[in-house]
Amino acid sequence: MGVMNKFMNFLGLQDEEEIVERERIVEPQEEIETPVQEPRKSNKGNIVSIHSQKNVRVILHEPRSYEETQEIADHLRSRRPVVVNLQRIRSDQATRIVDFISGTVYALNGSISKIGPNIFLCTPDTVEIHGSISEILNHEG
Asked: What pLDDT digit, counting tens, does each position of 36-47 carry?
């Protein structure tokens, strides 16, 4: 009977509190004790929500200087994907920004993808990127 209760609890068909109450009823009581209310701990360590993030916010950022790169890194650390447009910045500063963001993405186990000329998609490890748009990039070049 105990194995069946554990199996039903594992599947989420039965709460652990019900199992404890049923097992107490089945066990013969030798002494009659006054019930002491104990704080019941529900074992919710095994329950995982399917909807971990309800609203995912994608940040669009167009830095004008290297100093704004820290804001992009802060968004990535907060687990938000960032689209970075580097079209309005000098190429030497754009290279420095991409280097800094690449290091941040690497440290967070995320990924960075080029989605256009001087436009990058930076994502944390909670976001997966599938596919590529390399055909579009080749036609523009």
From this structure: 555 555 555 566
